[in-house]
Amino acid sequence: MTDLALVTGATGFVGSALCRKLLAEGYKVRALHRSRSALQALDGLKVERFEGDILQPDTLVPALQGVRWLFHAAARSDYWRDASGVLQSAVEGTRNVLLAALHAGVERVVLTSSSSAMGIPQGDELLDETSTFNLPPERFPYGYAKRQSELVALELTEQGLAVVIVNPSIVLGAGDINQISGSLVVQSARGHAFLWVDGGTNLIHVDDVACGHLAALRRGRSGERYILGHENLTHRQVFKRLAEITGQRKPWFHLPGALINPAAIGVDLVRKVLPLPLDGNQLRMSANYLWYDTGKATDELGFSARIGYETAARQAYDWYRQQGIL
Hints:
It contains eleven helices and twelve strands. It is α/β, with parallel strands linked by helices. It has a domain at 4-172 and 203-230 and 292-306: NAD(P)-binding Rossmann-like Domain (Rossmann fold), CATH 3.40.50.720. The strands form three sheets. It has a seven-stranded parallel sheet, with helices on both faces. Strands 7-9-11 form a three-stranded mixed sheet. The protein has a two-stranded parallel sheet with strand order 8-12. Helix 5 (183-189) packs across helix 7. The longest helix is centred in the first third of the chain and has 22 residues, at 83-104.
């Protein structure tokens, strides 16, 4: 069997970065994409393009022929638009892909989950790989879906499939055409990021995430999760730096914790008549300090992120300007 790697979700932000990294490391790469997927992210990459759909199992059998390594990065992230579609992709899609990999004799799988599968902290502690989703599913459909995807993977490890799980935090950098995490940059550049709440998040550059996937392939233990993160920052720090990069006014309105729930209700009411880049649950989640301890990935994978948040945000901003989005 050759060193052929299949990447699902190859036309997405993380998937395309992973294709670039694999090619740079000398792997042969097969990029799985749906027939209707935009292929812009694969431009200039010497990959084998292969049509398939993780929700159509019959299309996965030929895609996995001759594959030694599988990176399952296909997923839906736009839970504020279609929560049921996100869950179906995470659970049914992951089961289809991993069952096909088991039957095809794939040697090793790296599953792209998310730090959101760790839930929220109960106090001041940093979240780590022992943390797990602890909210009602409707409060954060994406985190719930990602945890369910992990559980599917763990079922398959019991059947003999070697699966390593990676949990990236907020991913930034050039190329997020669907504006998932990149919406932070776009909204700031448009002057919409005037509000800040107490709370925080962790951010990592997309190229570091790709490096973390390869480290997991080479050194990760099957059935284990590894957080791929970098800087723990408050929301105020995030948007203050974004304002400096985009030339907009720094966030000036502080929304106190006591007003977050009423504001979230108001956001959901407005969303019924106007498109908004967030929903009420996202606003509620932002009140938490979603900060992570990345020591396990450092100790076991030898992985340490190197590219800072400011560089990632600036590259994203420059890319959106080049694309005419800003």
